[in-house]
Amino acid sequence: MQEELLPFGISVTQWALIRYLKTNGPANFSDVADYWQVEKPAITPIAQKLSVRELISILSGADKRQKIMYLSEKGETLHKTIMEATDPFLEELMEGISQEERDAAAIVLEKLIMNLKRRG
Question: Are the CB atoms for 86 and 93 separated by under 8 Å?
């Protein structure tokens, strides 16, 4: 996927944060860290790079110590552009895999993630 993202100048982790915000809406650093099963400080450099490029906005929450990330209009546009550009890659990747198999794999992956979270 990194090769697919190279023309857009973003890393896989930056793309993952953009996708997370697009899918889940505004989030604080702890939300993303919990979801990714990483420490909160691991999110900071990713978010800062995206903020500098104006792809996300980082604003203070009700508690001034809490920072909320929002996907900006520029980030929304980039998300759409990347999705359109990577669709052929993803279709090729999924070639020969039926929808039933994709659904089954998604269920198994979700259960694996839940098992990992219980251990955490």
Answer: no
C-alpha 24/C-alpha 44 separation (Å) is 18
SS3 at position 27? strand
Dist. CA 11–CA 49, nearest whole Å: 10
The 27-28 sheet, strands edge to edge: 27-28, 67-71, 56-60
CA distance 29 to 38: 11
Q: Helix H segments across 1-120?
A: 2-5, 12-24, 29-36, 44-52, 73-93, 99-119
Long-range contacts of 103-112 (CB under 8 A, 24+ apart): none
Measured between alpha carbons, how far is 52 from 54 in angstroms, rounded to an integer? 5
Q: At 58, is the secondary structure helix, strand, or coil?
A: strand
pTM more than 0.70: yes
Residue 68 has pLDDT above 80, yes or no: yes
Mean of the per-residue pLDDT values of the chain: 87
